[in-house]
Design brief:
Length: about 80
């Protein structure tokens, strides 16, 4: 999985803190806009790199760089 700068910041913040953080806490700690932080969280959630409970996010322990990129299925004609 390819990470952009904001993805890296969000991942490192969650890793450094070592606890569950809310979207607002991640926004404050990374200094990035809420919308961009949420987009990164969504990407991580889809790849099962983070999990959420009661609007708090934490790492699952899965490495984002090892997460496979999804390849589109070939069309069958």
């Amino acid at each position: 999985m390819k990470l952009n700068k904001i993805d890296e910041k969000v991942f490192q913040t969650l890793k450094t803190e070592g606890k569950e953080l809310t979207l607002q806490e991640l926004t404050d700690k990374t200094g990035e806009p809420t919308k961009k932080v949420f987009k990164s969280l969504k990407k991580f959630f889809e790849k099962e790199i983070i999990e959420t409970k009661a609007r708090k996010y934490k790492l699952t322990g899965k490495d984002p760089k090892a997460a496979k990129e999804e390849k589109p299925e070939p069309e069958v004609k």
